[in-house]
Automatic annotation (TrEMBL):
The lineage of its organism: Bacteria, Pseudomonadati, Pseudomonadota, Betaproteobacteria, Burkholderiales. This is Tripartite tricarboxylate transporter substrate binding protein. CDD domains: PBP2_Bug27 (cd13578). It comes from the Bacteria. Belongs to the UPF0065 (bug) family. InterPro entries: BUG, Bug_dom1, TAT_signal.
Amino acid sequence: MQADRRKALQWLGAGSLATTASALGLGLGLGHARAQSGQSTASNYPSRPVRLVVPYPPGGATDVLARALGEPLGKLWQRPVIVENRPGVGGMIGADVVAKAAPDGYTLLLALPSLVQTPYMVAKPPFDPLRDLTAIGQLCTSSLVLTANSAMPRTLPEVVSLARSQPNKISYGTYGIGTGAHLYMQVFTTGAGAEMLHVPYKGEAPIATDLIGGQISLGTLSPMTVRQHARTGKLQPLAVTGNTRAPMLPDVPTFQELGYKGLDGPAWLGLFTTAGTPQPIVEKISADVETVMAAADIRQRMADLGLIVKTSRPAAFAAVAKADQAYWGNVIKEYNIRLD
């Protein structure tokens, strides 16, 4: 700033000091005006419908969360929140829509950690999640449950011992190549020194069906699905991801408790918008979303899905996304997991 002032004085000449000071004052005034304009824009936001992009098909937990959030948020704003499903390529198609939208806060993205994982698995990702998107806030956390069929041993140490004695004979199902479940299992099997056969599926229902039928030995499932079948003895939960036990399965230990590292980071569900959106708007959305997510009925609906409401503001959530990008990026590169 001092160097710029000296150049201005030299260019105008010593006799124009008053003019220079006036010009500098105008610059400061413009900066103040812009700040005031940002605040004003935030106070008027939203003045039209807001689009909430879900990069996954209808019916899943992410979609249910989006609709549970959108309705009360629309009432609070007195403007519709329109949920739009744009599935494909591990969530990248929907995320790309938001990354390329106008930076005005009217296009939001409900994302999972795949947002910062999938770009490492393709040769030419269409966007950079941390450069082209802005974090608004975390909404919930979730966990996965490694589950065995009824013919398998009943504890994780026993399963690991069996897998070590029979390399690639024990199979496990996940939601597909490159999904969070696949990445968690890659970290687990390597850390456990147990070679297992990965069987990718296109959803949770077929995993549960084949697991109960004995076509696969292990599967990664949601706490809600596991609780339903564990009650009848058809499935045996072994361990959950994350740093706390799943409320639906309080007797099932975490991988961390059992001594397996690298699986303690809970999966998050959070909101993003287009990079360049004025920060006052980002902060307003974050605060309003936090208010909505605090409601008892939403917290109960999420609990029924096996999700834990755990909100955070933009800076904190941005730090989580950045840390996850670094961690999972290294995992993906180490194991050369590709989608193309």
